[in-house]
Amino acid sequence: MRLLHPLLLIAVLLPSLVIAQETPPAKVVVTKVEVQEISQTQSVLGSLYYERVSHISSELAGLVAEIHVREGDHLQQGTPLLVLNTEILDTTIALSRTRIAQMELQVEQAEKNFTRLKRLYAQDGVSEKDYEETLYTHQNLLKEKQALEDGLHLLLIQKKRSVITAPFAGVILSKNVDLGDWVQQGRVIVTLGSTNDLFIRVPVGETMLQHISIGDKVPVIINAYDRELTGTIRAIAPKADPQTRNVFLKVKIPPQTDISENMSATIHVAASTRQKLAVIPRAALIKSQGKDFIYTIKEGKAAILPVHIVAFLGQEVGVDNPNISAGMDIVIEGNERLRPDQPVVVAGEK
Question: 302-316 burial, b for 16+ CB within 10 Å, e for fewer?
């Protein structure tokens, strides 16, 4: 059998080797570009704060017997914060109840006397003076009993208020007492921030106000955790900064359990009039050397395109590249492994 020359053998096998080494098609999921009229946005740094803060104080003076909270604790409405010592108050309440029981005996006896004299008086068996004195004694004892019961009610209110509770759901911002401290009436013992009233104070240039409206939804990033969420512009502060002329927006965000007051947050607010922009999912974005790109499909292969982001819209972004048009297919799944000109197979569309 005649053997092929080595060079001739390589020439014969080379095409099959190239085919074997060619990158296989990648399966991808695509979506279509939409064009919408939206505003360009500008990122602004703001500070987190609690709009509703309660400086909780005691209505009574007393010794702290129990304390149930620490700074940073998240509480539900009605949660006990601390309990004052009520030993003397408990003794006074017991004494008040004893006096009421004694008074009830006196009232019962006076009522029997009055009933008997009332019957005799109707039969001219006693004088009018004796009858009126018995009536007065009975009524006076009833009033005394009512006064004792009112006094007991007041003591029970004090007993109830010796347990100081959270007036609303919130987080303990500061605690100014500890076990064994003597609390004076009116002294602030705990500062509570409402978790349902968490806001961001955002400074913006006064010229941006023409593009901003109360109720606008804005993308927010809690910088400490790189956490993305949506906030709502609830108010515009009535006083601008006298030095910078910046105006402060009040942006409300959903409750968060792991933030600290004065943490920073980045907010994307409208900074232009509305214009037509291509809107694409953030899932379509890939980064390379600090720049943003997307993949589209041309003739069955991946084609990479740079994008210029001018608006952040939560899970979407607005771009102003003229070569990105409505209806264009862009890759949103499988793009992280693609390479330019790699063959692709569309496995689905969203």
Answer: bbbbebebbbbbeeb
